[in-house]
UniProtKB/TrEMBL annotation:
It comes from the Bacteria. Belongs to the FtsQ/DivIB family. DivIB subfamily. One of its GO terms (biological process) is FtsZ-dependent cytokinesis. GO terms for cellular component: cell division site; plasma membrane. This is Cell division protein DivIB. The chain crosses the membrane at residues 28-45. It is found in: Cell membrane; Membrane. HAMAP family: DivIB (MF_00912).
Length: 264
């Protein structure tokens, strides 16, 4: 039987000391790395490098960037990492014209505020001031304008709030390009039709329409009005069917409706 080599304790001591020294060195460098990292984090958090460097606002159309940033209460003096996103979104959403808000951190020092606004579907006039009407039917009495923006029609004569609400509901269903074709809408109810409207459009037409089918008729208005030549002066009726009545002769001119064509 082969004899086992016996290593004395005196021979092992130097090796054990070396291994202990290596472990101690590894432990020291690990602690040193953690301490240095923590020091760097503390210095970073206390320095301007950790502050918000840029606040970007996007998708706003009516509400100004300055107003949105003001509502957010964010500033470049604040820590980027201490932002309460939900709190900022809640503050910005308090604006009556803002429907939804998303706040996002970008990179290590930029904040993005993405807003979704309620569309303005009209303006009402009172005491020589114009007040916006939103797609949800709310009249913004807090916002007074000397002149409307031109992005929605001016509404006159709507003493009945229910009728106004019905009309704004129809306007909210239309594309902005259609809404911007209308410059003025007058509510002119009579014994035969409490929903009757008289409109004036940006392409120079006087139009008789009705609240109950307003959005359906206005969606096809461009194709109906395109059948009229610039020299034709009169009233375009789209409340029932579609026809044109010249101011002078009063003889009705029947028009084709693209609504009927699209259904065929």
């Amino acid at each position: 039987m082969a004899q086992k080599k016996v290593v004395s304790i005196e021979d092992r001591i130097p090796q054990l000391k070396l291994e202990r020294k290596k472990k101690a060195n590894r432990r020291f460098f690990t602690y040193l790395t953690v301490i240095l990292f923590l020091i760097m984090v503390i210095v970073y958090l206390q320095s301007p490098l950790s502050h918000i460097q840029s606040i970007q606002v996007s998708d706003n159309r009516v509400v100004t960037e300055e107003d949105i940033i003001g509502l957010s209460e964010l500033s470049t003096n604040q820590s980027f990492w201490m932002i309460d996103v939900e709190d900022v979104e809640q503050k910005v959403s308090e604006h009556l014209e803002i429907n939804n808000v998303d706040v996002e951190r970008s990179w290590y020092n930029q904040v993005n505020i993405i807003v979704n606004e309620h569309s303005r579907v009209g303006y009402v006039k009172s005491s020589n001031q114009f007040y916006p009407i939103l797609e949800n039917g709310k009249i913004l009495k807090e916002i007074q304008l000397e002149t409307p923006r031109g992005d929605a029609p001016i509404l006159y004569g709507f003493s009945n709030e229910e009728q106004l609400s019905r009309l704004t509901n129809h306007l909210s269903k239309l594309d902005e390009s259609i809404v911007q074709l209308i410059s003025e809408i007058y509510w002119e109810p009579d014994d035969m039709n409490q929903d009757q409207l008289r409109m004036f459009t940006t392409d120079g037409q006087e139009v008789i329409a009705s609240i109950h089918n307003f959005s359906e008729k206005m969606k096809v208005y461009p194709s109906i009005s395109s059948q009229l030549t610039p020299d034709m002066k009169g009233i375009l009726y789209i409340d029932v069917g579609a026809y044109f009545q010249p101011y002078e002769s009063g003889e009705e001119v029947q028009l084709d409706s693209s609504e009927e064509d699209s259904d065929s």
